[in-house]
Amino acid sequence: MSVDTLTYLALGDSYTIGEAVPLSGSFPHQLRNRLQAKGLHIKAPLIIAKTGWTTSELEEGIKTAAVQQKFDIVTLLIGVNNQYRGESKTAYRNEFKKLLETAIKFAGGQKAHVFVISIPDWGATPYGRESGRDIASIATEIDAFNAINKEETQMQGISYTDITPASRLAKSDESLLAEDGLHPSEKMYFDWAVQLEPKILKGLK
């Protein structure tokens, strides 16, 4: 494995920027630290993400950023806002598929360097419980959106990390949540980084 300086692009929404935690506590930065500890030299992640973004908004954000370079590592986590806004699953599939193709292009066509992460269940949070929505329905819908992104990811032969079951542990463990009662804490993001680390090490070999 090369020890040259590697590059990392993180695509997504609030879960990628680490809303409500310090930037250093976000999963891309914690992941970088773990990989650095394994001897890889990785530049600070370039993050194209914004709180509230859906798949179509991420697509627009990527166009606006007009990034031309290729990356050694690309992560993609998107879809919670599609579910939250009640957007169509058919549209989500089409838009997610395009974003996955974009991620592959950013990785220079190397599918082994692209890593998709499932959507966490925001219904398991205090915010979810106080939202007035049916928690069971939120969980069912999150599972349906994740079934789509998992299927599209696996059809491309790309790594898929399912963090959704662990996100539901927030129901009984509020240390997994940031102070806003909605987004993950650094502790939950650390768990995501731990799950991603061996897959990335394998993909970069």
UniProtKB/TrEMBL annotation:
InterPro entries per the UniProt record, alphabetical: SGNH_hydro, SGNH_hydro_sf
This protein's record includes keyword Hydrolase: yes
Record-level Gene Ontology MF annotations: hydrolase activity
Superkingdom of source: Bacteria
Keyword field: Hydrolase
Keyword Phosphoprotein carried by entry: no
Domain SGNH hydrolase-type esterase: 10-189
Record field: transmembrane: none
Family annotation (CDD domains): SGNH_hydrolase_like_1
Protein name, UniProt field: SGNH/GDSL hydrolase family protein
Organism encoding this protein: Pedobacter gandavensis
